[in-house]
Amino acid sequence: MMYKKRLDSLYEFNKIGDIKIESLKKYIEHIIQIDTFSRKYDFNTRYLEQADHLLSRWSKSWFRDSFAKSKGKTADLPFIKVNECFLRNDSDFVLCLDENPRISAEISHGSFDYKAISQFTESDEKPKHVINEGIVIPHVSTYNVWHHFVELISITNEIAKNKNLKLDKFIFIPEMEDTKELLYLLSIEDRVKTFPTKKNILLTNSHIVTGVFDEILPIKCLKDSINQIVESDEIKNNQFNSESIFLSRGDKSLNRRNLKNEEDVVSALNRKFPSLEINKPGFGGLKDNISKMINAKYAISPQGTQLYFNCLFMKKPKIIWELVNDSYYGLTVGELAANFLNCKYMSSPTKSIESGYAIYKDQIVDMDSLKSSLDGLEI
User: Fold this and answer.
1) Per the domain annotation, does 368 fall within a domain?
2) Checking DSSP bridges between strand 244-247 and strand 200-209, what pairing results, if any?
3) Cα dihedral 154→160→161→167 (10° resolution)
4) Residues 213, 87 share a domain
5) Is the pLDDT of residue 217 over 80?
6) How far apart are CA 211 and CA 136, in angstroms?
7) Once rounded to an integer, what is the mean pLDDT over residues 191-197?
8) In a domain, 226, yes or no
9) Could you tell me the pLDDT band of residue 212, with boundaries at 50, 70 and 90?
10) What is the pLDDT of residues 333-344, one digit of tens each?
11) Taking a C-beta distance cutoff of 8 angstroms, is the pair 63, 212 a contact?
12) Residue 183 in contact with residue 251, Cβ under 8 Å?
């Protein structure tokens, strides 16, 4: 019944409207400050995304509080000590059940309800997976390599190589398909271990680190990780010389959203970029995909991870060109990436071929708009 009691305590605790940030201080043993960059949020943002979803650490977050006090320039990553704590890292939520509900509320976040969460706790009082004396970084990012690398792997790399941190412990992160290859490229595979998602895990005598998610970039951590990967022997000795690249979404076997008039788009682009390279990241390996981007100056692609992640490794980018649905208002992740890379951002509108949420529907590019942009482009 321990799970149930702690879950009930967490939900009761979340009903408190005003929880003092300082109440967490006595459980924090170490803090790392990171530089942050965001166009979506600034220090005036009262509620970060997902703050309306219980359980949510954003409304009670040490990270958010430090982000606000620095006016969006830096944030603190607290190392919270737990003696015996249950943890579950799913694809859309992180659940922490500590004996102290203040800690549980700080770590838990995502989209779920009490009834759904209860089913994960009733049958597993003694988890098969135990982490002892570790540094644990739970994170909702295992579905997407952009989020996984930007918001988790880059932070993990900073912690693993931080000489001022006097914690000689293994670091544990949730595993996705590309995790181990990224750790290897960063030369931290011996220090960092992975744990399974969608499983109940018991943490003993460990530290939990809360980090970033959504569209707040840990800029120095991210730049350091990118540079280390680019300079790794596996990438440095396998570079391509493509100046312009079209990143395809591939086909239905890999993607929930594709570009239906891709041949017409590529034909139009070829008139301006005669040496245009067509790359389908979903069909290639991680290292080859990164290697193809190193010397590219122009990256053109439909909205999606294949653009956001791979363009990060362009050494001297000039243009990030995103083909994005015309109903998508506001900042896109492509524009955020272009801001981070300090290069020009361009976009061309697409339309969904059927009704529904555009991010899940096949797209068709407005060819007149694309050709007009190409006619006016000087390269």
Assistant:
1) yes
2) unpaired
3) 140
4) yes
5) yes
6) 11
7) 95
8) no
9) confident
10) 899 899 999 999
11) yes
12) no
Mean pLDDT of 30-34: 94
State the residue range of the domain holding 371. 235-375
Residues 18 and 100 in one domain: yes
* Cα 274 → chain centroid: 34
Q: Answer yes or no: do 214 and 251 share one domain.
A: no
Contact 299, 320 (CB under 8 A): yes
Residues 256 and 362 in one domain: yes
Residues 210 and 244 in one domain: no
Among the listed residues 285, 332, 287, 337, the one whose alpha carbon sits nearest the alpha carbon of residue 311: 337
End residue of a domain, out of 218, 250, 267: 218
Do the beta carbons of residue 350 and residue 304 sit within 8 Å? no
pLDDT of residue 333: 87
Q: pLDDT digit string (tens) for 85-97?
A: 999 998 888 889 9
Number of domains the chain is built from: 2
What's the rounded mean pLDDT across residues 287-313? 94
Q: Note the pLDDT of residue 66.
A: 87
Q: How far apart are CA 214 and CA 212, in angstroms?
A: 7
> How far is 155 from 225, CA to CA, in rounded Å?
9
Last residue of some domain: 192, 218, 244?
218
* Residue that is written with structure tokens 């019944």 in the block: 1
Here the tokens at position 321 are 């060109």
Please check whether residues 186 and 242 belong to one and the same domain: no
Higher per-residue confidence, 8 vs 169: 169
Residue 181 has pLDDT above 90, yes or no: yes
- Find the farthest-apart pair of alpha carbons in the chain and give their distance in angstroms, rounded: 68
Could you tell me the sign of the dihedral formed by the alpha carbons of 47, 48, 53, 56, in that order?
negative
Same domain, 211 and 357: no
**224 part of a folded domain:** no
Residue 315 and residue 173 in one domain: no
Q: Which residue has the higher pLDDT, 57 or 180?
A: 180
Task: Give the span between the Cα atoms of 264 and 233, in whole angstroms.
Answer: 38
CATH number of the domain that residue 248 is part of: 3.40.50
Of all helices (H) and strands (E), which one includes residue 372?
helix 367-375
